């Protein structure tokens, strides 16, 4: 059994990890950390876990004797946390924040569709961002083919859980419901990791990603639309995409009509493409808390520990 701890377990991604790991056949959850909830049973914070776990939150970090720790901390908090709590190389660290996605300090960028062989050897894994996952999986095959020399136009809409558990004016029900808004126009922090991967897939990649992020009025899920001028046929594009994802455990190319609920509550990314008006248009859909965060983190854990990539992740969609 993989002895595991979760830091930031009272938050959204931490809670989602608990939900996945209490039923994972190869994981023993040793502790769940929270400063604000220490001493409380897990169900005091995640009431849906009644009957599934008797764990109690602790504010103590035991850096010894663990095989794996997940860090579910806000951006900028993971690096100082690891400085204060140095885990030995025998402990695999999977960080869900942006802090190490530049692959500094020995971290490997944890996008399995691109880096599976490196993740399998890694002791430090930087889990991708949620928008970054949706956008990279929409465009990676096209970038690899060298089709993305010019500007890439991308929109993405996210559910409110993407902003974390802490209440803010833009996650407040009154302002979020029946509403849509744009934020961080062309400047979203995930562009850095997206460009890093695209440069890895095509060393000549100089295309610019113009990304318009939207806040959606739903709780879970990310929908991405990307397009660029494309002179080939739709069939050729489809063939390249299917080939690129031929070994992907969770990313599927589908020519069925796509909607968000097909992926909500699953670790899947569904990709749909079509050619219109000289443009290749690609849609991708993920659950921001699963393939966009905690599900992908468990997928990375499975790879790093030599397990079946799908273990503990064969989940049922909401569908309708
Ligand atoms: N939400 C998503 O869809 C999503 C997707 C991809 C990546 N991410 C990334 O995953 C990370 C966690 O996101 P989240 O949505 O789970 O956030 P969240 O709901 O706000 O939870 C973060 C948790 O971190 C703990 N925390 C904050 N500062 C801390 C510190 N200095 N030391 C120890 N614990 C601290 C807090 O717990 P206590 O106050 O109880 O200690 C809090 O519950 C972020 O970096 C986020 O960007 C999130």
Automatic annotation (TrEMBL):
GO BP, sorted A to Z: L-arginine biosynthetic process
Any single Gene Ontology cellular-component annotation: cytoplasm
Predominant subcellular localization, coarse grouping: cytoplasm
Domain Semialdehyde dehydrogenase NAD-binding: 3-122
SUPFAM superfamilies (UniProt xref): Glyceraldehyde-3-phosphate dehydrogenase-like, C-terminal domain, NAD(P)-binding Rossmann-fold domains
Keywords: Amino-acid biosynthesis, Arginine biosynthesis, Cytoplasm, NADP, Oxidoreductase
GO molecular function (one): NADP+ binding
Transmembrane segments: none
Enzyme class: oxidoreductase
EC assignment: 1.2.1.38
Reactions mediated catalytically: N-acetyl-L-glutamate 5-semialdehyde + phosphate + NADP(+) = N-acetyl-L-glutamyl 5-phosphate + NADPH + H(+)
PROSITE patterns, per database record: ARGC
Location of the protein in the cell: Cytoplasm
Pathway: Amino-acid biosynthesis; L-arginine biosynthesis; N(2)-acetyl-L-ornithine from L-glutamate: step 3/4
Function recorded in the entry: Catalyzes the NADPH-dependent reduction of N-acetyl-5-glutamyl phosphate to yield N-acetyl-L-glutamate 5-semialdehyde.
Annotated HAMAP family: ArgC_type1 (MF_00150)
Name the UniProt record assigns to this protein: N-acetyl-gamma-glutamyl-phosphate reductase
Organism the protein comes from: Cyclobacterium xiamenense
Name of the gene this protein is made from: argC
